[in-house]
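Lab meeting, item 3. Inverse folding demo.
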């Protein structure tokens, strides 16, 4: 909350306005009891505000509260002590869960009642206008300070929510980064496994069936190439790059191609071979669609 000097400056509340309030006090303070009664009759007309005045004792207590504020409005110096008193009133409104629009409506009612009395009792047109300007400035300052408590309460809730959300997001990011590191390690281990498998296929090609071993080795080489692509993509993702789904489709394609290579030498049934070819065709279509969408997102053809 800003200081009272900043608020006075913003509302152009001058020392002359302070003097005019004293004159207003001479006119309006003798009517305090009347104003308090009319004010609470106004509040009791509305279901939500009437709920705060269920007993005569509660009404009497609130009338005294109103008269104390009304007296302060015209007799107090608009200084930091006055600011603190208004802030306390605003916090009470927040604590009892009185909606801010009720405060605005109540201030509007007080403003109109005061204006009517000023218009009725001051005949000098220039003085009347000057007095009313001071009245409006004073009431606007009061309303602004009182309702600021509602804004502070909302900001407090948002701030607490924001801190919790920020902490949760930070933890999620750390967990995600850790999982990506774990995935990278897993890909490295699998890459080593593919290298071992490639070495084994080459060994089989040299020691047993050369043609069959070469085909298996070629399939393993394709898988190794895909493992390198996966590692490259994952490292790029860890460094902030975009993740590409088509890499996984490429891996599935390579796996099926290797399976078809091997199946061509294992003399599998035509049905099984045709199923593999059909699956390869479907994966090819999926790869085409995914690559087209990702290319459009990155602006590439």
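The presenter then showed the designed sequence:
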């Amino acid at each position: 909350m800003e200081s009272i000097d900043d608020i006075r400056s913003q509302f152009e509340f001058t020392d002359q306005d302070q003097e005019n309030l004293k004159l207003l006090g001479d006119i309006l303070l003798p009517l305090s009891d009347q104003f308090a009664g009319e004010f609470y009759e106004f509040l009791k007309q509305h279901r939500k505000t009437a709920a705060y005045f269920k007993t005569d004792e509660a009404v009497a207590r609130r009338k005294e509260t109103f008269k104390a504020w009304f007296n302060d409005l015209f007799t107090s110096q608009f200084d930091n002590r006055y600011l603190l008193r208004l802030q306390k009133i605003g916090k009470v409104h927040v604590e009892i869960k009185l909606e801010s629009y009720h405060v605005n409506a109540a201030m509007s009612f007080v403003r109109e009642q005061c204006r009517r009395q000023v218009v009725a009792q001051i005949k000098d047109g220039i003085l009347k206008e000057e007095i009313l300007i001071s009245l409006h400035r004073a009431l606007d300052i009061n309303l602004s300070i009182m309702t600021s408590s509602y804004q502070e309460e909302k900001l407090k809730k948002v701030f607490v929510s924001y801190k919790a959300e920020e902490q949760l997001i930070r933890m999620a990011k750390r967990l995600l980064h850790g999982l990506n590191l774990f995935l990278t390690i897993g890909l490295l281990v699998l890459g080593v496994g593919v290298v071992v498998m490639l070495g084994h296929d080459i060994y089989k090609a040299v020691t047993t069936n050369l043609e069959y071993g070469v085909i298996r080795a070629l399939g393993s080489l394709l898988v190794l190439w895909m493992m390198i692509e996966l590692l490259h993509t994952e490292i790029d993702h860890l460094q902030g790059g975009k993740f590409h789904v088509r890499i996984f489709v490429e891996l599935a394609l390579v796996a099926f191609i290797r399976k078809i290579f091997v199946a061509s030498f294992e003399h599998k049934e035509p049905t099984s071979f045709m199923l593999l070819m059909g699956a390869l065709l479907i994966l090819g279509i999926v790869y085409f669609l995914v690559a087209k969408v990702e290319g459009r997102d990155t602006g590439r053809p």
